[in-house]
Amino acid sequence: MAEGVLVDAAERERIRSSLDESLLVEAAAGTGKTSELVTRIVNVLATGGARVDQMLAVTFTEKAAGELKLRLREGLERARHELTGSGDRRDNDHAARLRNIEHAIAHLEEAQVSTIHGFCADLLHERPVEAGVDPQFDVLAEAERTFGQAFDAWLQQTLADPPDGVRRALRRRSTGGFGEQASTERPTERLKKAATDLTEWRDFPAPWRRETFERKAIIDQIVAHLIDFAELVDQVSNRRSDRLYLDVRPGLLVARAIRTHDELRPRRRDYDGIEASLVELAANRNFINPRKGAGAQYGDGVSRATVVEQHRKIVDVLRNFHRVADADLAALLQGELRAPMETYAALKRDAGRLDFLDLLLEARDLVRDHDDVREDFQRRFTRIFVDEFQDTDPLQAEILLLLAADDPAERDWRRVRPAPGKLFIVGDPKQSIYRFRRADVGVYQQVKTQLQDRGVAVVALTTSFRAVPSIQRLINRAFAPLMSRGGGQAAAPESPQAEYVPLSPHRNEVDGQPSIVVLPVPHPYGMRRVAASAIERSLPDAVGAFVSWLVTESGWQVTERLPPSEDENGTASVQTSGRVAVAARHVCLLFRRFESFGTDMTRAYVNALEARELPHLLVGGRTFHDREEVMTMRAALAAVEYPDDELSIFATLRGSLFAVEDAALLEYHHRFGRLHPFRIPAALGGGDQVDDASVDTTERGRLASIATALAVLRDAHRHRNDVPVAETIGRLLETTRAHAGFVMRPGGEQALANVMQIAEMARRYEASGGLSFRGFVEQLEDQAVAGQAGEAPILEEGSDGVRIMTVHRAKGLEFPVVVLADPTCKLHRKTAGRFIDANRGLCALRIAGWSPLDLLDHEDVEVARDRQEGIRLAYVAATRARDLLVVPAVGDGPFQDGWLGPLDDVIYPPVATRRDPSPAPGCPPFGRDSVVDRPDGDPARPDTVAPGQYWFADDAGTGKAKVLPFQTGSPAHSKQSNAAAVSTVRHGSPSTLRPVEGSTDRPGYPVVWWDPNSPTLRLGIEARFGIRQAELLSKDTPAPVVERDLARYRAWRERRDRTVLDAATPSLRVLTVTELAEQLVADQVGAATDGDEPEIVELAGDPDRPAGRRFGALVHAVLAVTPLDAAADQVGEFAGLEGRMLGATDAEVAAAGAVATAALAHPILERARRAVGAGACRRETPVTMQAEDGTLVEGVVDLAFHDDGTWVVVDFKTDRELDVALDVYRCQVQLYAQMVARATGAPARAVLMRI
Asked: Which residues contact 635 (CB under 8 A, 6 or more apart)?
């Protein structure tokens, strides 16, 4: 691997030496594309192919541009050193190369290395007359703020007489979003967001299709049907508990409201309001999918079937109306919202500013429409290098290809033939994840095909220097079938996907520690089944505990990039790497999202890290205004601006800046009436005379700090408009010495950076034209309401801590350890966001939750495109890891529809081997269960993955793509279908797990499933405050004083830790019946009971019926609530009801009804029915018992009834075969019988019934 010739050595040599050939290089993750790009540039300069001022290099970000220029300088210096120390200087070619390199170094600052936006700005500044722009234009940094001003001005004028679309939009009360959850945005905010979206796509002006929509007539018809339906619904017999009535009652309420309004204003029907109500009703999940209720009769003379059928009809009508009304509204708004866009353009023009889209549009027009300008730029830039081309949008591609054309007269970028050697493009379509920024893999493939047709060669780099081979093999196995051009949806022409090129290994495997760890969610279950909410509560703590163990106890090592060294001549060497102990700075938590409907998805992970005192850096978080330190500063600035705002004054004094105790604040308020910076009592050093304000010495000592704090706020208010806002903020921090206070708290580095970010925001506010302190305070409040502004970036060189960032932020980066987080995030949206027809100049957008007809017509295709990008995003996330990839999972089976779904098939072993792992090297001893607890205390099942190591062997196949459960058209993902999926490798051939001994050099990869029950994974640790930055406290204090205080603090901390440890030791040990049964069976001890062996009853059933946790929970639920004398049709109704609550399939519901009906017909259940009449039958009854050693045993008895002097205790099991866990089940039901006997004083016998 590390030795020998690289598999792509010929391609790399072609890049370096074939300098007169234009190339498109597809470089997979970690293949060293930047190094190859720099080498080609150096060779072009050395051979005289171009001077530095004739070179254009375009990168994706400013940071990448800076790094490229730095790497280029290092490459040139290295080349000069090599030429100086070797060769014959009398050789003309050698001397020319050295002169060229020295000239390049001397003039390197003349090189055009920038982002595409920076390059376009330079073009426009050079040719402003031809471009028609202000020669002194600036780039608009605060575009969102400027557009907000334009929109607000337009809205104020428009509200006096709003057009139809705006009027209807303002009446809408809710919209759907990601996952179709209702939005909480105000109508005006939704409208502003819609206008913003249209502005970002203003270069696609074609109007959206709007068909004839007789709105009023249609609404009249729907209202008539709805009123008829409401009258039917109102005939219910039981209003309090009929479930069908309770779920469809919103329709009744809407009908009543319409009828009441019509009676009050008979000739002025409120069509806008009715439309909003009907759309909201169509989005009401309970109304659309109601429970059916029990009984054939719904009301007097009304059958339940009649109500259900009429409900189905009205739902069909409402759904169609919802779709058509939204499409009509979207098309109306596209035209009406052009006005604020024009106002925005006027504001920019008057200020002499261009936003980023303007830069591209104006530069494109300049290059395309002016032949002399285009020809001039083509002569100047003889070499064009483009990095990250997969992230390039059509506008950028058009500009660059026109500049690379061999024909100066060609204006159509789609017909361009690049001049030989002029164009060098690097990209990886597998990492195309910026579709929301106009970059689309379809555009990349279009340009690639176009260039190939015109003689540009495509070269692939596959040798990846980043990850160890095991991680690479896992990635190849996961994504090759999903990105294959030959199979399934991945190859659909309307939803293009990147063609997968497998990664080739270069590094050696590392012995003694795993490279791939699956971290099971400790508590993944809700009430009965795996739930996203339970995963979101449980996983962050497990991640924090695992990272803590990793960096403090594991002893594992990772590779760390070492900075280049310099020789005695000052020449930098090539960057190398070495192995070091894993530290917090090596770990990165990667998220698909940072927010979900206003909830900060990172907060729980941050809390888990802070609880374990692990430093961390949150990169680009969007919950800036929810941070405590930011709220403190916002309150303080509000108190400075509004001294009469007593609530802000109180919050400021009580917060982190002044930290005044509540008791002192209340005493001050009681004594002097109010907290006011200009009403400080004379008795406390102020000038305000207050009646009965005499203060004794003790009181003055308690209240003097409040007076001092109020004086600080008073002085700040007086000078707030005389100095820059940032200076006022700095004075507040300096006066209160808040820097130390912020840094000392957990996560203090981030807290301090966020506070300083406010000062930076103030500077930007004033630089963009802000005039007053009050304006900045109001801007902060507006941003807080809108949830804007990201957390301050503090990723400086040498900063320590676990990185927390999104996959988009991490693109282009690598980390020794990558932990994939937030697995409940969906792989893709269920609704399309946009449809583009470039030939028509059409971009149909989903605005404010409303989709136009052009988008709806192509929704399936666009959703498929989003799904393909979701797969690529998972690929980018997995390829960030160098030494260790940590993937969260549920031990009882894959979580469906999550963004990590593409990895499920490559981390879950086949069902047959899930209970038989090998020991994991470098890991602590593991137990047998990868779930900490389940509903009813159930044990691990045969398909539960046991903690340990599994070996996935490589297999050869046909290249056929697999169909994942999250892809359209996949079969229902029952436990059996899932088992089949994970027991079949990606090409359809059987997968085998083999022993791991001596596996380092064998094809394949090992996966270690962690044990969430392991004592090394310390769960449930609470955050505590401590002195983390003691050096900040000792700056101005004598050392003996500091040492004495620290000694007192440490003594207190030790006493506190001992107290916490003692308190954490349980005074009573609690076990579930299942846990005790497992222990007794493991210790080969039976349940201590005086009764006989349990009777085992097995009911004959369909061997092909569903099985699994959800099915078992459904059967138990049906048997718990169904009357024991219920007929088969009643059992079916209860099965349908419980199945809906559990999300069961129709097949599971039908099978559960059949199983429960068969169980109720058994003689044992017939005897239970007789016991019901005597009041001697209990179902789903909690029981407890104290064992001889003091352990409290808890459980729930499925069924117990008194029969002929003996309690019969029945435990239902839905396993297909009892043999696997028969000993545990037998012991379990014996314990239940023993507990019932102790509780009642009567004998009890146990029955284990497989149903």
From this structure: 648, 651, 652, 655
